[in-house]
Amino acid sequence: IEVILLEPNRTFVSCPFSNLVLSGVRTIDSLTFDYRGLRRHGVSVRHEAATAIEPDTRRVRVGEGYLQYDRLIVSPGVEFQWEQVEGLAENQDKVLHAWKAGPQTVQLAAQLQSMPDGGVFVLTIPPAAYRCPPGPYERTCQVAWYLKNNKPKSKVIVLDANQNIISKTGLFRAAWRDYPNIDYRASNKVVKVDPSAREVTTDFGDKVKYDVVNLIPPQRAGTIAVQADLVGADKRWCEVNHVTYESVKHRDIHVIGDSTIGLPVPKSGNIANAMGKICAVAVAHLLAGKQPPALPPGNTCYSWVNDREAIAVVNAYKIDGGKVVQIEQKLTPGQSVAVAQNSVGWAASIWNDILG
Questions:
Q1: Considering the entire predicted model, what is its pTM?
Q2: What is the average pLDDT across 271-277?
Q3: β-bridge partners, 59
Q4: What is the count of structural domains for the chain?
Q5: Which DSSP symbol is given to 247?
Q6: What distance in Å separates the CA atoms of residue 120 and residue 87, rounded to the nearest whole number?
Q7: What is the rounded distance in angstroms from the CA atom of residue 38 to the CA atom of residue 41?
Q8: What CATH code is carried by the domain that includes residue 157?
Q9: Which CA distances in Å does 96 have to 65, 180, 213, 274?
Q10: Nearest partner of 101 among 30, 187, 25, 149, judged by Cα
Q11: 308 part of a folded domain
Q12: Residue 129: is the preceding peptide bond cis (ω within 30°)?
């Protein structure tokens, strides 16, 4: 089987662990990798962007040319819905999301470090579904830990569009007892940002002043998925077959990762990795004219609550009647150094797994 990977970026920057760059616990360089390992495995890696998919002709537009495919696997990730927040689209250089690890992660860390003691860091969380459900709450911990140790007069205001912490709720609540500098406000959806006034406005009409703002916008599937008519009626996410990850709208196109919907799984790195493996097995079987096995994904997700300790959740699933069904969820009893150490091993393993 000839495998061609179209990846516009020459380096891979890990979203897992990137929140620790904000607190200074990790560096962005420690989370940055190249694609040489994939080439050693025989994958043809082309650092070009796919600009269009033509399901009827089974081809992908790349630059001025096309690539034909027998089976296409699309991992478009998420795109931000800038239009959902007034003032955001025209101020993307001033109002950072840092929700795709890389330059903005470093820029946000610099803004945090430059903030005066006594300053206010505002973090906004979009309505679910979005990439990495516990990510904003882990980020809250890392910012609060940094402020507690470096700018003790400062605070972090969290404006959450959701009714409550949507992942590891009790564990995050327990961790936040160490951070009286966290002002968490549930059911506060940000609808406007004004960098000139340094304030955001919620759907209640409340105006919240900030010294530094980290606005995580609402999200949908990547643009190429929308343009190729892979998204469903919600115009946001792609519905797929639970066994093969084939699109329910277009044959021979498979969709994996954060852009999918309909499975009872979070938009996590571990799930995306599992989807990739299961989809690869399914595609290999289909190309050989065989029936793919029904393989369930699994999920393990770690969140660091300070510079040394972490919490975790593990989800187990099965395939029942052609659908993914959750059968168990386990949470760590509390935060610990041991869980944090386990997360380091998990990260090293998954980075090696996906990049060779």
A1: 0.97
A2: 97
A3: 54, 68
A4: 1
A5: B
A6: 20
A7: 5
A8: 3.50.50.60
A9: 35, 25, 7, 30
A10: 30
A11: no
A12: yes
Side chain identity, residue 31: L
- Does the residue 188 lie in any domain? yes
Segments forming the whole domain that contains residue 199? 80-219
pLDDT digits (tens, 9 = 90+) for 204-259: 999 999 999 999 999 999 999 999 999 999 999 999 999 999 999 999 999 999 99
pLDDT tens column, 148-165: 999 999 999 999 999 999
* Of 118, 107, 113, 106, nearest in space to 209 by CA: 118
Residue 170 has pLDDT above 90, yes or no: yes
3-state SS of 318-339 is EEECCEEEEEEEEECCCCEHHH
pLDDT, tens only, 69-106: 999 999 999 999 999 999 999 999 999 999 999 999 99
With CA atoms as reference, report the closest residue to 298 among 328, 336, 323, 320.
328
Integer Cα distance of 66 and 188 in angstroms: 46
Among 332, 265, 329, 277, CA closest to 302:
332
Residue 57 lies in a domain: no
Q: How many CB atoms lie within 10 A of CB 348?
A: 10
Please report the DSSP string for 150-178 in residue order: H-TT-EEEEEESSSS--SSHHHHHHHHTT
User: Residue 154: its pLDDT value, please?
Assistant: 99
Residue type, 179: Y
**pLDDT mean over 46-62:** 97
Q: Where are the alpha helices (DSSP H) in the chain?
A: 19-23, 36-40, 103-114, 135-150, 169-176, 223-227, 269-287, 337-355
Tokens standing for residue 318: 């099965």
Residues 172 and 186: their CA atoms lie apart, in Å, by 14
The answer on pLDDT for 340 being more than 90 is yes
Residue 338 structure tokens: 């041991």
HSE-CB of 289 using CA atoms within 13 angstroms: 0
Q: What tokens were used for 232?
A: 């469903």
In a domain, 36, yes or no: no
85 burial type by CB count under 10 A (0-12 exposed, 13-18 middle, 19+ buried)? buried
Cβ atoms of residues 131 and 99 within 8 Å: yes
